[in-house]
Amino acid sequence: MLVVAAPAVALTPCGNCGSDEVRMRARGSAGSRRTAQVVCARCSSYSELCVGAYAEDQAARSWERKPHVVPAPPAARVVRGRVPMPEPTLVRDPLELIARMLVGGSFREPSEGRSTMPPLAAADIAGAVGMMRDSVAKQAVLAVALRGQGVSLSSLGRSLARRVMRQIQWQRRFGAKPALRMDDPADRWRMRLVLQDAVNDLVWPEGKIAAQDAAKAAKMRKGDYLRVYGIAAATLRQALEDGRKEFSGRVFNR
Question: In Å, how far are 2, 12, 154, 202 from 160, measured between CA atoms?
Fold first, then answer.
């Protein structure tokens, strides 16, 4: 059950739009399973989803730490003989809808003029995700949209390993010296480390470490590490793009 609770301390205005319509949303009874999140009613900006007995206090501190973004004025183009027109708004990433499931509520798809289209609810988004056929693309989409929260990244790495191994075997078939041999247990262990690095860099790109340090941790030559990492990263990016297109097509029927 979703409850809009009155926080013990006054919440700061939204750093994204400046609105004072900021609410604390809490779920569950008091205890370790209680969750809380601060949400702006105007622009839907939100804090981290905090869990535990002190979820409200943690959510309030997370909201205060959010950077204050100053919105840039919309660019305008001048057409001869006409009033300056604002540039059309950018199309939002459909993966944002998955992240909105953590906040609750609904989302109305923007359209020109009057529209009778019903708003998108969390059940619609969850249904579109559940109907995705590519398991690797589905896991990559959820991992990126939810920033790894509630997603098994190790399962994504195992699913990705099969595709990366096929790429390495394909290169070996055409005469290239393989960077790793899958019949060697030590190389399989190195493969898992490289895949974990690729998945972590996709989900948390701000925490990427230097290739030299990563290769040293995997006990590999830097050149071999970069070859395997490049294959894994390219495969992940392709899976993410495929998942983005499939999810968008299922939720918007495009």
Answer: 36, 42, 10, 13
User: Residue 32, SS3?
Assistant: coil
The one-letter amino acid at 119: P
161 three-state secondary structure? helix
Whether 215 contacts 222, CB under 8 Å = yes
CB 17 within 8 A of CB 82: no
DSSP state of 56: H
Residue spans of the domains in the chain: they are 2-65, 135-252
Residues recorded for the chain: 254
- Please give the model's pTM, rounded to 2 decimal places: 0.52
Supply 78's token pair: 């001048």
Residues whose CB is less than 8 angstroms from the CB of residue 192 and which lie 6 or more positions away in sequence, other chains included = 157, 161
Residue 7 has which token pair?
């926080």
- Residue 75: CB atoms within 10 A of its CB come to 8
- List Cα–Cα distances, 112 to 43, 115, 130, in angstroms: 19, 8, 29
pLDDT tens profile 145-171? 777 777 778 888 888 888 888 877 776
- Rounded CA separation 151/5 (Å): 28
Q: For residue range 168-227, what is the model confidence (pLDDT) as tens digits?
A: 777 666 666 667 777 788 888 888 888 888 888 888 888 888 888 888 888 888 888 898
Non-local CB neighbours of 201 within 8 Å, separated by 6+ positions: 207, 208, 233
